[in-house]
């Protein structure tokens, strides 16, 4: 399987280039350079480095530049997850390279990598006798944490809500299409689902809003992240 490497760009051009060489990912066919969405202090240099490396690599590898929120870690993680999912739809696996990243990018990348089960790599800098950084000593893989802290039935509800439901009845029928509406079994299921929705709302995974006589249910940002977790079993 071909690999897309998502590279978080800071101010260390040589470290980034050295990390490509020493990562030993022979199947990399695309690089996405991530820079800050906000034009804050130091960002101009990061963007210039990304453009410079992109030009230098243009003759032998495809590359893009993506802009990600570097101040809001949660929003940044959501944006990185979207990048990962987009590349996976192309048939590529994804490696997150945080060798030269800003601290907030590293946190967002770690969250996104743990949720999507993507590989995360970073580098150990190499220094000369005068303690000047002169490259990369070694590229190492950072183990991602297994992320799954919902019960099976709660995860099923999260996945069924998806882009949102306009009523509790709609959610129940998504969960159990064979149920006869307003039967005894239907009301039992309604009670069960209502209990789990209360827990999910209190935990920040969903939010409800009243629409006429109905209550619509949607995923929060945290719920959306959870819906992207693969192979989640409890």
TrEMBL record:
This is DUF6293 family protein. It comes from the Archaea. SUPFAM superfamilies: Winged helix' DNA-binding domain. InterPro entries: HFX_2341-like_N, WH-like_DNA-bd_sf, WH_DNA-bd_sf. Transmembrane segments: none annotated. Residues 5-119 form the HFX-2341-like N-terminal domain. Pfam families: HFX_2341_N (PF19810).
């Amino acid at each position: 399987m071909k690999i897309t490497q998502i590279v978080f760009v800071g101010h260390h051009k040589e470290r980034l280039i050295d990390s490509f060489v020493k990562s030993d990912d022979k199947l990399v066919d695309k690089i996405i350079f991530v820079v800050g969405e906000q034009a804050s202090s130091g960002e101009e240099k990061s963007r210039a480095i990304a453009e410079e490396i992109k030009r230098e690599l243009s003759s032998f590898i495809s590359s893009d530049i993506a802009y990600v929120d570097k101040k809001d870690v949660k929003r940044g993680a959501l944006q990185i997850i979207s990048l990962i999912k987009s590349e996976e739809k192309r048939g590529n696996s994804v490696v997150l390279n945080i060798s030269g990243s800003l601290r907030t990018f590293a946190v967002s990348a770690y969250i996104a990598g743990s949720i999507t089960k993507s590989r995360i790599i970073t580098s150990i800098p190499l220094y000369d006798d005068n303690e000047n950084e002169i490259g990369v000593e070694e590229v190492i893989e950072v183990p991602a944490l297994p992320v799954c802290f919902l019960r099976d039935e709660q995860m099923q509800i999260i996945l069924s809500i998806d882009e949102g439901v306009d009523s509790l009845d709609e959610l129940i029928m998504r969960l159990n299409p064979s149920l006869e509406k307003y039967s005894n079994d239907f009301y039992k299921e309604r009670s069960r689902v209502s209990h789990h929705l209360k827990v999910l709302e209190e935990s920040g995974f969903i939010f409800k809003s009243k629409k006429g006589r109905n209550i619509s249910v949607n995923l929060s940002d945290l719920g959306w992240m959870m819906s992207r977790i693969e192979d989640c079993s409890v």
